[in-house]
Amino acid sequence: MAxxxxxxxxVDVSRGGAAPAGASGAERISALAQRHGALVVLVAVVLVxxxxxxxxxxxxxxxRLAVNAAFLAIVALGMTFVIITGGIDLSVGSVxxxxxxxxxxxxxxxxxxxxxxxVAAAGAIGLANGLLVARTRLAPFIVTLASMLGARGLxxxxxxxxxxxxxxxxxxxxxxxxxxGLFGIGYPVYLTLALFGLGGLLLRRxxxxxxxxxxxxxxxxxxxxxxxxxxxxxxxxxxxxxxxGFAGALNAAYLGSGVTxxxxxxxxxxxxxxxxxxxLLTGGLxxxxxxxxxxxxxxxxxxxxxxxxxxxxxYQQVVSGLFLIAVVVAQTYLSRRRRIx
Amino acid sequence: MxxxxxxxxxxxxxxxxxxxxxxxxxxxxxAFSLRPGEAHALVGENGAGKSTLIKVxxxxxxxxxxxxxxxxxxxxxxxxxxxQRAGISTIYQEVNLVPLMSVARNLYLGRExxxxxxxxxxxxxxxxxxxxxxxxxxxxxVRAPLRTLGLxxxxxxxxxxxxxxxxxxxxxxxxxxxxxxxxxxxxxxxxGRLRERGIAIVYVxxxxxxxxxxxxxVTVLRDGRVVHTGALAELPRLRxxxxxxxxxxxxxxxxxxxxxxxxxxxxxxxPVLVAEDLRVRHLVxxxxxxxRPGEIVGLGGLLGAGxxxxxxAIAGALPLxxxxxxxxxxPLRRRSTAAAIRGxxxxxxxxxxxxxxxxxxxxxxxIALAALPRLSRFGLVSERRVDRVVATFMERLRIKAxxxxxxxxxxxxxxxxxxxxxxxxxxxxxxxxxxxxxxxVDVGAKAEVQRLIDELAAxxxxxxxxxxxxxxxxxxxxxVVVLKDGAVVGELVGEDVTEDALLxxxxxxxxxxxxxxxxxxxxxxxxxx
Lengths: 341, 529
Known about the structure:
The structure holds two protein chains of two kinds.
Chain A: H1 4-15, H2 25-52, H3 59-84, H4 92-106, H5 111-136, H6 140-158, H7 173-179, E1 181-182, E2 185-186, H8 187-205, H9 207-217, H10 219-224, H11 229-255, H12 266-276, H13 288-308, H14 314-340
Antiparallel strand pairs in A: 1-2
Helix pairs in contact in A: 2-13, 2-14, 3-8, 3-9, 3-11, 3-12, 3-13, 4-5, 4-6, 4-11, 5-6, 5-11, 7-11, 8-9, 9-11, 12-13, 12-14, 13-14
Chain B: E1 12-21, E2 24-34, E3 39-43, H1 50-57, E4 65-70, E5 73-74, H2 80-86, E6 88-91, H3 103-108, H4 122-135, H5 151-164, E7 169-173, H6 181-196, E8 200-204, H7 208-214, E9 217-222, E10 225-231, H8 237-245, E11 273-280, E12 284-291, E13 296-300, H9 307-314, E14 322-327, E15 330-331, H10 337-343, E16 345-348, H11 352-355, H12 363-368, E17 376-377, E18 380-381, H13 383-396, H14 413-425, E19 431-435, H15 443-458, E20 462-466, H16 470-476, E21 479-484, E22 487-493, H17 499-507
Parallel strand pairs in B: 3-8, 3-9, 6-7, 7-8, 13-20, 13-21, 16-19, 19-20
Antiparallel strand pairs in B: 1-2, 1-4, 4-5, 9-10, 11-12, 11-14, 14-15, 17-18, 21-22
Helix pairs in contact in B: 5-6, 8-17
């Protein structure tokens, strides 16, 4: 007997059947909460902190915070695309570190190599991730777990088991790119905002962006509707790799050297930021602006804990973890409500 | 509207279409032809080859032999996308869109209107989406996520999209299976307008009323072969059902066929199973069943009539919207499979592979699986007791295996079925629900399974038997309850359980008033559109 109508009707039953004419009030509220919940919390945290600590809302502290957040934000941008397609990229932390070391090493040959070498290497890893995920249909978790290990190994090999630290030559343009600024705001902040602007445009206003949502929302349906599923997946992993490599290079310039212990568990911070920003971990729904807010929120919490001083910075992780759980619980609750309402 | 005999060149035509799967000839030289502007019903029972034919037409499968002509030229679609680009669109039973994306984005995915900068022009997209959807009787906020729409509206969006990509042929696979009556009406209106535009419709449905209302012509498939093709209006319902099931019904007469037994006939025993007024939205519509100990009650009806769903509803595997189930006078309060099993109801599911056996586990482990709680003490399984139970059932059910430790996946279909049966019997059920117990089982094993069912009933079990094999249903059951569109439309008792009577009951569309949830066409003489 027909098996399919069972599922079809089950969906209908859970939806309560009757067709609402449009988005209901509850639907709209939960969509707003999904989308802007993190922003509301961010504003609240910033307000409270500004009132509590004189040293928080100062140009110096805010700029430092923003530049600090820029590197994670760039990584989170790529991660946003990957997660919206329903995938995950665990390799970004390792690629970030590899990018930093390569950039510091290549900076002796000039600014252009210092940018191109890490980005090219990161792009190659992203491409490999994408090819494996898109063509062989292996689970992204496994594929990127493998490349995470691989990239970390490569980084150690390049840096002589981590013993060799390459320094970026003093006074080079590469250094200036990350350490300089305009109107009291660091260049990395401008770069990050520009990348997010482009990313948002790409996601919301182009056919490629639509296919990213479609692949994450219902891969089979997307394929039937003519979306190039494999190409879309390939592209998002490539983008994620490129952005992680670029962020690593920028970070090396900011620090003046390729620090091999950086980027550890950064992929998890990036995933946390993306999810806090309202992107569904299951794919199909998400916003680049949300990821930016998510990154800022994580960094502000870190900053606050530093300001309190008496608290060990270890607690930053605890707070971030609790926050993540709260967001995921809220998301699950909201989407369940929406399905019923 | 194009009449069924309009002398138009076919828009889609197949000749000698053959598709083989390992051990099965799914399509056997199928000749199918579709005229522009017609609605063509494609019918057949499970395994008749309908879905294989659709999949070949839409590029999911490639045929082993035969030709496919589309608008006079050969077509060999390699993917569904190829077929779609050529002009063959499919509306699936389950809406195949992206629920989280907005209505308009779903409608225009992959072909979004762009502005001069190459960016998506949402203003134009939304306006066009609204206009397009209004033609389909859907006026919604096109910016809202698709999933906020009812299923009927979603189905319309899928249809609008399918037609909007320049379809010349639209294949609809059970399009009404999850629609409300009002939505069905809208769909029929849209189908009418599509036909006026010369678009041909292939309509697959098990609801005969709908076929007679919507379709001009019909092609009946059975065992991969076309057994009939022609104007639908000239084909009486009874004959259509007989063709689908492969029966001769020339001698069938209507009189005295759908007789309700009303109050059950005098019997000493109280029913072991009472299911009253079971309701599952869209699927089961007020079914009442009583089974006495030692009785085998058959559940008849066409595919999609709600037989499997009724069994699942009784066994707690489908959430009920209404109704009560009690076993030996004790009502089941919690609605879950676990509660049903504890209450003494065992369901042998239709799909052995997906819902039953664990192929990698041994015969012993498969049998013991459900009974483990009964066979253990303080959470520890008593191996000795398991061995004893397994040995008992392997002998009693004559399971042919190298030994209790052979993986079930290596056994024949019949023996796999027996292992499943043993699993449930090890729970000492009072009621056994058997859904197609002999499907995919070879002839010898089939007879043995049937004998087994008889023995089990003789031991006092109440048995509900679902089977598409008419002979099995008729010879096995003392009573056959006939379902249609999820409702009981007839009951045959004792001597009345005959093939002719069953066929007539299945085909009888008029039925008792008020039992058919779908707007019924007047009798079997519905004209062509």
